Amino acid sequence: MLDPGLAAALLSPPGLGVLGLLIGSFLNVVVHRLPAMMWRAWWKDSVEFQLADPLAWQPLFGSQSRPPPQLALAAKAIDAELKKLPQETLLHPRSRCPQCGHVLRWWENIPVFSWLVLLRGRCSACGTRIAWRYPAVELVTGGLFAAAAASFGAQPSTLLWCLAIALLLTMALIDLDTTLLPDSLTLPLIGVGLGGALAGVTGVTPAESAAGALAGYGVLWLVGFVWRLARKVDAMAEGDMKMLAGIGALLGWQALPSALLLAAGLGAVVGLVMIAGLGRDRSKPIPFGPYLALGGLCSIFFGPALRSVWLL
Questions:
Q1: What phi, psi does 96 have (nearest 5°)?
Q2: Which helix (H) or strand (E) holds 198?
Q3: Closest by Cα among 144, 99, 147 to 123
Q4: Distance between terminal CA atoms of the chain?
Q5: Which pLDDT tens digit goes with each residue over 14-40?
Q6: Chain segment 115-128, per-residue pLDDT in tens
Q7: If residue 79 lies in a helix (H) or strand (E), which one and from where to where?
Q8: Is the pLDDT of residue 170 over 80?
Q9: Which of 179, 227, 281, 293 could form a disulfide with 168 if both were Cys (CB 3.0 to 4.6 A apart)?
Q10: Residue 243 φ/ψ, nearest 5 degrees
Q11: In this structure, how many other beta carbons lie within 10 angstroms of the beta carbon of residue 306?
Q12: Is the pLDDT of residue 144 over 80?
């Protein structure tokens, strides 16, 4: 059994801050690899179940119809390219330089310190610049974990808030890069919220958590439905709906107005600046996940204060 003093130290702001630095390093891997793993799975499914499969073709084009031979050739070509790709998971292979393939040694993978002091922002093998976002993600994750310890106390239940923070950060970064919000992240956030409510550690009842999940999904579904009727385009992706459902499950339905108002307000301001000031194409979608993540994080730490402002 873990010594109580050691447990308190590990769950203190410095202890969880260090854990956050390590988790942030792993989040960088997830942000880079998870979308690639999803795309690989989609292409594999398209080859195996759609392109040249009569069972997928005939329900639409008729029972006597057959897929054009070009589709079979395309399926073979895609399959051949997929087989050339190295096998990759979130844990394997070890991190490497995307430019030269240099495998990072343990001392090159120390959060923040390696980038700042040992590598000075460059690959040790080829000298390619390493993006500043890697240590920034580690620092932000460490800071938020430390803030969670300071806000919720040095107790095991604080780890649930750290898990939720890590999920929100990962979703924000993946959506920013790819406009994807994977089910493998949004659905666990819903589970964390519902499980935390059942365990009595999130400050909301199971009924409030379930209502928050339903309302979070439903309000964005309604916005998307109305926008589609009015403008004939999709305004909301299902991933956004699931992400807000997760925030609602975690914090209860009471937190949704503040989280959504923050997300929508900041998203609108940034969108206008990007379109008017930076010339962004209006038809190009702007990912909403980063703003939902910010609304959720602010609600985690400042929920009662935000609700009091909103009620005024």
A1: -145, 165
A2: helix 183-199
A3: 99
A4: 49
A5: 999 999 999 999 999 999 999 999 999
A6: 999 999 999 989 99
A7: helix 69-84
A8: yes
A9: 293
A10: -65, -45
A11: 19
A12: yes
Q: Does residue 122 sit in helix, strand or coil? A: strand
**Would you state the structure tokens that stand for residue 121, as one six-digit string?**
């922002």
Q: Take residue 190 and report the two structure tokens written for it.
A: 């819903």
Amino acid at 138: E
Compute the C-alpha angle 221/229/263, nearest 5°.
40
Neighbouring residues of 206: CB distance < 8 A, sequence distance ≥ 6: 194, 197, 198
Closest CA to 218 of 183, 249, 196, 184: 249
Task: State the amino acid at position 167 in one-letter form.
Answer: L
Global pTM reads 0.93
Per-residue pLDDT averaged across 141-147, rounded? Answer: 98
Angle at 249 between CA 247 and CA 251, to 5 degrees: 65
Cis peptide bond prior to 93, omega within 30° of 0 = yes
Q: Which two tokens stand for residue 18?
A: 């260090």
Instruction: Say whether pLDDT at 312 is over 60.
Output: no
Classify burial at 283, counting beta carbons within 10 Å of its beta carbon; exposed 0-12, middle 13-18, buried 19 or more: exposed
State both tokens at 44.
């594999």
Residues 6+ apart with CB under 8 A from 284: none
